[in-house]
Amino acid sequence: MSGAETQATAYGVLPLNTTEDVKAQQADVAVLPIGSFEQHGAFLPLVTDTVVACTIAREIAAAHPVLLLPPLTISCSHEHAAWPGTVSISAVTLYAVVRDIAESLRRSGISALILVNGHGGNYVLRNVVQESEGTGTRMALFPGTADWDAARARAGVQTSSHSDMHAGEVETSILLHAHPELVRPGYESADFLADERRHLLTLGMPAYTESGVIGSPSLASAVKGKELLAGLVDSFAEYVSVVAPDTPNARGTR
Description:
alpha/beta; Rossmann fold; four-stranded parallel β-sheet; two-stranded antiparallel ribbon; 8 helices; metal-binding
């Protein structure tokens, strides 16, 4: 069984490796999908960000020699708290959990960890990566802005990255491609733009949208979703080369 062999679930993917599989694989880099449990309008599930993160991670694991970890499914969604079903943990808790996972991996011999983040509100992950210097674990956060920009251009996404904030063209396209059974009718007429969101962190999403949508899901397609994922897989190769323990910039070798 390879490191990329997985089982589809409502969250997108769960690794099926045994201990012996991991030993045989000898991966130097672990990948941790991080999603959320928050509203995504009336047509996408609460687990959308987790499905997106898991889908990206699954594609990465199929193309690169990495150890795929199960996802963190609840994170920092406080700006969505007004909608029923949304569940959050504090940034302090998310920070601590990721740091603990990195330390556990290091003790087991894996000193590189890439966080595949599916939720834009997980701002603290940037700090986790920034502060990993000197901890013995080389970390990175993926996808970055440039990675998304390249993938969006490849897929022909029409909505700008700023306008396509939540439950819009990109997220809906990825689910239409990878998990169409999770997309309910209604996305075709759910477009809502709110480009002026200066006080989002203070006021939360309800100040800018009644439906929970900010973006243009009507422009989504499965073809765009497929190309988005392909573009992100291509971008990921650079991250592996940066964090892998045997690269010149790494903090030593195992």
